[in-house]
Design brief:
The complex is a heterodimer of chains A (433) and B (189). Chain A is mainly alpha-helical and 433 residues long. Chain A contains 19 helices and two strands. In chain A, helix 3 crosses helix 7, helix 4 crosses helix 8 and helix 8 packs antiparallel against helix 18. Chain B has four helices and six strands, in the order αβαβββαβαβ. The longest helix of chain B has 27 residues. Chain B has a two-stranded antiparallel sheet with strand order 1-6. A two-stranded antiparallel ribbon of chain B has the order 2-5. The chains are: A mainly alpha (433), B alpha+beta (189).
Chain lengths: 433, 189
């Protein structure tokens, strides 16, 4: 009996003799005599565009409702219900995609890559929360963001984070934003999506490492309020800065603060700022000198950061697959590694010149060199401004929600005695009518 | 130290207001830029069968437990061979449908007799896991009528597709949503 393997080898040998013949000619399609009807492959359609417009409409409605609940209604319970709805809709129903956090990358890539198309809905998801923040503060974080909602739900035993730790850890979010922009601009990777810790929960499947990362965030989140939002979220960085300028904002007291200090410990996110004391005169002079020094230090930090960011381009460029492939092919050609990878085999099968690949890779490295200047400069700028911010003192007379850090969760409202008075008055009004 | 005075517009107020206006204008600019740019249709992920090397990453890297990528059969390309290299494993014991003879690890390919000597091969999508073993077999020795495609009733259309990241040949790419499949062309002489 002839073994089947021998047939394969025989056929393969024959085929290798006539490689010039195109693949589709090997076995001509038969002409059937029995009236057999040839089926055609099915092509199930992607989700209709209309559903994406519904998503955008839900986002708009959610943001409007959230603004109303935070600024007018002032009800933590209502904000909580909206939050749970958003978690169910944008999270578990829509599986976490599209989200404004990831949309940063699409926008950046569309600026740098002419051929890249951004769906209109992604643009809406990026712009709308920012516009609302300019008017009403971070109402997106309060009731619409499914990632924020997820963490807000598990926050059971809040522990205050020391100011210095908070400031230091927050720098990571800026670095993360810078890196995400760098990698998106060079078309290398969408790191925000890749390391989104909660999306695997929404889908109930995904990469195991990211799932573990998400679980860690949730466990930490039981004690430290919204760790992703405060220390990692790159979109939160943009929201923070826009929220500083917002037209309206969260106020702890509905009218005037009576400085009762009852709200002092109510915020699990460290966003309540206490009134300032007077500045001792002898320290004032010293801080003035320090401030001058820090302002002069700023450009130095930026240059240093840029130099470092550009210097590591050989490493950062490896995020791009073409660079990885070029390095692999180089190592193989030099005989420094044994064997091949799927990627190098696929490259050689295309018959492209190795030189061309190397040239592409060195172009991408150059892009990373230039991008590194911007990325490092940005990190330097952020660190410098942080230092300056620490040595500038603002005067505050009342307990205030910090414009940047406040995520408008509404927890502090019920701590304020004036709020209770307002609610009582409102109830009486309803009783009278 | 600066004290905010609510009645008099201070320099700080002016600065803040102009920054606010600049931010709003900037967002308007972004919106306008995107509106101009996204005239086209949305995009979805798809595999270019001409570039696909059937490495098997599609089966394992998809964020879904059961990959969104499945094998698709272009019947018009198929030779209806009695001995199909996409169906039979190397060195089968016999030329029949017994499980030990099959190449597909999940038994997703059904082989049925049409007329002598032709056999029809159909993919049971419920069983297919997108590993591409049959695709490799069919491409190497056959007509290449079996190929992998993203099934859009399953695909979540992630912003960054995990399979695209793992794809060694750049076959996994975005295509316009109104033409969501890259089916193999029928080019009989």
């Amino acid at each position: 009996m002839i073994r089947f393997g021998h047939i394969i080898f025989g056929v393969a040998f024959l085929l290798s003799l006539c490689t010039a013949v195109s693949a589709s000619e090997r076995f001509p399609p038969p002409e059937f005599e029995s009236g057999y009807e040839q089926p055609s492959p099915t092509t199930p359609h992607p989700r209709q565009d209309i559903y994406e417009y519904i998503d955008a409409a839900v986002l708009l409605a959610g943001l409007s409702l959230s603004s109303y609940l935070v600024l007018r209604n002032r009800s933590r319970r209502a904000i909580f219900i909206l939050m749970v709805f958003s978690l169910l809709y944008f999270g578990f129903w829509r599986k976490g995609c599209v989200c404004p956090i990831g949309a940063i990358q699409n926008i950046v890539l569309s600026v740098f890559d002419r051929d890249y198309v951004v769906p209109i809905v992604v643009g809406v998801f990026f712009v709308l929360p920012l516009v609302f923040t300019l008017f009403f503060g971070r109402v997106f974080c309060a009731g619409v963001c499914p990632l924020g909602a997820m963490q807000d739900l598990v926050l059971l035993r809040p522990v205050p984070v020391p100011r210095w730790a908070e400031s230091g850890l927050r720098l990571f979010a800026y670095v993360y934003l810078g890196a995400a922009v760098l990698f998106a601009a060079t078309g290398s990777a969408f790191v925000i999506c890749r390391y989104d810790p909660f999306v695997s929960f929404f889908r109930l499947s995904g990469n195991l490492n990211v799932l573990i990362l998400g679980a860690c965030f949730l466990v930490v989140g039981v004690f430290i309020g919204r760790p992703y939002c405060r220390f990692v979220c790159p979109y939160g960085v943009i929201l923070r800065q826009m929220s500083r300028l917002s037209k309206w904002r969260v106020t702890i007291a509905p009218d005037e603060c009576v400085q009762c200090r009852l709200c002092e410990d109510s915020c699990p996110f460290g966003a309540i700022k206490e009134p300032t004391t007077d500045w001792p005169v002898h320290e004032y002079d010293r801080s003035k000198k320090r401030l001058a020094f820090l302002i002069l230090l700023l450009p130095v930090l930026m240059l240093l950061g840029g130099w470092m960011g550009s210097g590591v381009r050989m490493v950062t460029a490896r995020m791009h697959e073409t660079v990885r492939l070029a390095e692999r092919v180089y190592l193989e050609d030099e005989g420094k590694v044994e064997g091949t990878t799927d990627a190098s085999l696929a490259f050689r099968a295309t018959g492209k010149e190795v030189k061309e690949l190397y040239e592409e890779a060195s172009n991408i490295r150059a892009e990373f060199g230039l991008g590194g200047w911007f990325f490092g400069g940005f990190v330097g700028l952020v660190i410098g401004l942080k230092l300056i911010g620490l040595s500038v003192r603002r005067q505050r007379k009342d307990y205030e929600a910090d414009r940047a850090s406040c995520v408008a969760c509404g927890r502090c409202f019920e701590y304020c005695p004036k709020e209770h008075a307002r609610l009582k008055k409102a109830k009486e009004m309803i009783g009278k009518s | 130290m600066m004290v905010e005075n609510k009645n008099n517009p201070t320099r700080r107020h002016f600065l803040r207001d102009s920054l606010w206006g600049a931010c709003l204008a900037g967002l308007g600019g972004i919106a306008g830029f995107l509106g101009r740019k996204s005239k086209g249709t949305n995009t979805v992920w798809q595999i270019d069968p001409e570039l696909c090397v059937a490495c098997g990453n599609c089966a394992t890297y998809c964020v879904l437990e059961e990959s969104a990528v499945k094998c698709v059969h272009a019947y018009a390309e198929c030779g209806y061979c009695k001995i199909c290299f996409g169906f039979f494993g190397p060195e089968p014991f016999d030329i029949d449908e017994a499980a030990e003879n099959q190449l597909c690890p999940t038994g997703a390919i059904k082989r049925s007799f049409v007329e002598d000597p032709y056999y029809e091969y159909t993919i049971d999508e419920k069983l297919c896991n997108g590993c591409g073993k049959c695709v490799k077999g069919c491409n190497t020795f056959g007509n290449g009528s079996l190929f992998l495609q993203v099934r859009h009733d399953r695909c979540l259309n992630c912003n960054e597709c995990s399979i695209a990241v793992a794809c060694p040949s750049g076959a996994h790419k975005r295509v316009p949503a109104n033409k969501p499949y890259l089916l193999k062309r029928v080019d009989h002489a």
